[in-house]
Amino acid sequence: MTILGAANAVDTGDTAWMLVATAMVLLMTPALGLFYAGLVRSKNTLNTFMMCIAAISVAVVTWAVVGYSLAFDGTAKIIGGLDHVLLNGVGFEPRDGTTIPHLVFFAFQATFCIITTALVSGAVVERMRFGPFLVFSALWSVLVYAVLAHWAFGGGWLAAQGTLDFAGGVPVEMGSGFSALAAALVVGARKDYGRQALLPHNAMFVLLGAGLLWFGWFGFNGGSGFNTGNNSVLAFTNTLLTPSCTLAVWAILDAIRGRQVTAVGAATAIIVGCVAITPAGGFISPAWAMVLGALAAVPSYGVLVWRTRTRIDETLDVLAAHGIAGFTGIVFIGFFAEMQWNGIADGLFYGDAGQLGSQLVAGVAAPVYAFAVTYGLLRLIGAVMPLRGPDDHEAVGMDIIHHGEEAYATGEGALLIGADYTPPEKVAVGDRT
Amino acid sequence: MKMVIAYIRHEAFEPIRAELLVLGFPSMSVSEVKGSGRQKGITERYRGAQLTNYLRPKVKIECAIAGRDVRTVVDTILKHARTGGVGDGKVFVLPVEEAYRVRTGESGEEILQLHSEAAKEV
Question: Where is A292: in which H helix or E strand?
C-alpha cells in the first residue's frame, strides 16, 4: 500500500491502469473455473465451473451491500463501519491514500472478494449441493473475506501492528486455503474418494486456466499499489519472476519423485508461484522474488503429496496451493523485505527482526480465523439444509442433478419436449417398441 | 464355455472389477454404452429448449469363462450392481462355441481357466 502526500487528486495514468487491472482480476475467476473444471470428472464440469461463475454474482452483491463497507470504512481494529453500505459515499473523488476514484478502488477490491470466494469451492466440488454453496459463499464473503480484508488492507489490527501484505496473502490466499480445509472436513469426502481413481478429465483446461490466471495476476499484484509507481512496477515484474522459478523447482521435484514432469503439476506450480509473490510483490527485490519462487515450491509440494494420502478430500488442494504458499510469501517478507526497494520496511535479513514478528502474527491469526469461522458457518448451514445429496446424485453427476445440462452433451436420443408431446411413461410397458 | 455380458451402472464397475480380479478373473472387455430401459429419462434444458433423454450411459462388461465359473462371476456382478432401483441393468449368459488364444493358437476351455494369482500381479 503506498502512502501519498497531501496532494490527493485523481491521477489519470493511475486510474487508467487500475481500470485495466480490475478487468484483468475479474478474468481470473472464469480462468479459475476452467482450471477447476479441468481437474474434476466430466460429469461435474459445469457444476464446478458454475460455482466460480456464481461466486461473481454472489460476492459482488454482498460486497456492494455490506462487505466493502465492513472491510474499508474506517480503521477500527476488528471490523470496519457501515458508512459505505450500498456504495454510500463511494464516488468519483479519490479514495483516501490513493490517486484513483473511490469507485475504481471499490471495483478493484470487489474482484478480489469474488476470486477468493470462488477459490474455496475447490474444496467441495463434485459433491456439495449448489444451493447450500450459494448460501455459504454469500455469508463467507462477508464473515471471512471482508473481515480479513479489513485486518490486512483496511487499516485493521494486522495492518496497524505492521504486517505487510501487498496484494492479499492474508485475506485471499491464507483466507481461502484454510477455509478450504475446514470446508472439506465439514462436507466430507466424495463417495468414491480413496477407493477409485478420480482423475482430472481435461488437463488442457487446467493448463489454459493456469495460464489465464497468471495473466490476470499481473493486474492482481500490479494493481495492488493502486498506482503506476515503483511498488506496482516491482510487484508486476516479480509476478513474472516468482512463478517461473516455482515452475522450474516443481518440475525438478516431479522428476525426482516420479521420473516425469507432469502437466497438471506444472499448472499447479504456476498457481503456487503467483500465490507466493502475492503478499511479497511490492516489498522484495527481484532477485529475492526468484528465491521465493524456488523456495515456495517445496512446502506446497509436500502438503499436496501428504494430503492425497489422508482421508481429507480437500479435492483441488486449495490448502497446498493457496494457504501454504500464501503463508510462505507472508513469512518471506519478514526475512527479505528491503527498504531500498520498497521504501517502507526492512526484514530480518536487512536488520529489522520486528518485521518477521509482525508477519508471523498474520501467519497464525489469518489461518486460525479463516478455519474456525468457516467450520462453524458450514456446520450452521448444514443444520438448516443438507450440504450433500444422496449417493446416487453423486454417481449421476452434479451437472445433470443441479443444472439439467451436460458439458459434453451429444444430443443422441434426446427428444424435444413440445406442446403436443406425450411423455412415454403413459405408454404401457409391453407396448413399447 | 460361456460369455457373460452385463450392462451395469458406472459406479458398480470398479467394485466388480476388483472382486473378479481377487477371485481370479482378470480377463474382460469393457465398453461405455448408452441404452434405454424402464429407467426414467433425464430432463435437460438448453436455452429454453427442454428435452428428455431416455438413453442413459451404462457400462458393458464382456467376460468369457468356463461353464463351471458362471455362478461365481454372475453372483459377483449381481452383488455389486444391485441398488434396488430401476436402472441397475441386466446380465446375460450366452453359450460360446470355441475359444482360441491368439498368442499360442491353443483352444478349448483350458484357456479360460481361473488365474488365481492375478490380483498379486497388479
Answer: helix A286-308
What confidence tier does B42 reach under pLDDT thresholds 50, 70, 90? confident
Closest CA in chain B for residue A392: B11
3-state secondary structure B67-79: HHHHHHHHHHHHH
Contacts of A190 in chain B (CB under 8 A): none
Residue A210: burial class (beta carbons within 10 Å; 0-12, 13-18, 19+): buried
The number of folded domains in chain B is 1
Question: Among B36, B43, B50, which would you mutate to test the A interface (most chain A Cβ atoms within 10 Å of its Cβ)?
Answer: B50
Is B17 in CB contact (< 8 Å) with chain A?
no
CB pairs < 8 Å spanning A and B: 52
Minimal CA separation from B41 to chain A, in Å: 9
Find the distance separating the first CA and the last CA of chain A, reported in whole Å: 72
Q: What class, spelled out in words, does domain A13-394 have in CATH?
A: mainly alpha
Q: Quick check: B106 contacting A, CB < 8 Å?
A: no
Q: Is this complex's ipTM strictly greater than 0.90?
A: no
Cα–Cα dist A71/A150, whole Å: 4
Residue B56 maps to which CATH number?
A: 3.30.70.120
Q: For the whole model, what pTM was predicted?
A: 0.90
* Mean pLDDT across chain B: 91
Domain extent for B95? 2-121
Per-residue pLDDT tens over the stretch A144-176: 999 999 999 999 999 999 999 999 999 999 999
- State how far the Cα of B119 lies from the Cα of B104, in Å rounded to an integer: 23
pLDDT of residue A419: 54
CB contact under 8 Å between A395 and B10, yes or no, is yes
- Is any Cβ of chain A less than 8 angstroms from the Cβ of B32? no
